[in-house]
Amino acid sequence: VSFTTDDFNRADGAIGANWTTLTAATAFDISSNQARGPSAGTCASFYSAFTPQNANHFARATLTTLVASASGGVGVMTRADNVSGGNAYLGLGADSGTPDLLYSVVAGVATLISTAAGGAAANDVLELRAIGTTQTLLKNSVTDISVTDSSVAGVGTGGIVAVVVATLPKVDDFMVSDIAPPMLMLLGVGN
Amino acid sequence: MSFYLMPMIGTGTIADPRRPKYQPAGQWSMSDFGGNCVVWAATADASVAAQADVTTIPPLDNTVAVVATQNALEGLNMPAQWVSAGMTYRTVLRVVVGMAQLVQRVRGLGTPVVLAGNLDRTVNSFSAGVIANIATACDQLGIDRTNITGTTTLREALRIFGQQFAAGNTIVLGDL
ipTM of this model? Predict the structure, then answer.
């Protein structure tokens, strides 16, 4: 099992060479030792310096500044790559009162596959797990969304994302990690 | 939990994603199946059920109305000739969601999936790239494809896949 982390503690400016921008999105940058998204549009950066052993991995980050948007938010992504226009699962949290969202992106085509009421609060920890065909979004270690979806086929890696934002969202303390075989067995995924 | 069959809308951008044509109030999830989808919602939504192009699935443990079920599924380009008397809606839905996984994975491997007009084509009538992606999708998802040959129709290949998936040969579909 291997993993990597990024606490974003470095000078303001570009997010760094370990990160790659998802096709058709803009990049996060560094502001006050956190990763910051822009004030509009979609930004998505994945940690291309780390390649998980396989497609079973998770990405986790702390949402330090949220956005108020029923159709977007800030969060993490798994299986992210730029093959054929971009692929990933996106898990997003937004301010209280707006839904949390789970998207698939296949060859640049986004599909909204699940929503959960409730919304997020500042400093919530969002984690997206990709285990086989089960995609699970956890908020503060509690399952928020769990859905069966097979559309994103590649291994990719983890990343951070913000969608349709009206403020400058920020995330901190990013981690992407393989999921250990014992955990897969506990979850009943054996083949 | 309530289940619906319906078309999808959206251009596929983040601002206008592919999504169910009608989104139930509260928590919902869906499995896309070509241009249509299966939606399950935490609570019933009468406004969704009232739409002319939405099929509301009866209680899962009821025995299926065979002809009506076949017509509803085939009308959305979801193979249904295998549905037979005595099955429950739960059984049918598990297979349908299983078939959707194959469609999703084939699309994820780079083959745009057009089901309308193609369900009765045999596997060997598709291009070599499409055939390879169907095989790869089965292998990646842990499905035995020895009974899927060149003369197997696409609808039969989907049924074979869906029934294995529903039987838990690859993963367990939770409470469904």
Answer: 0.91
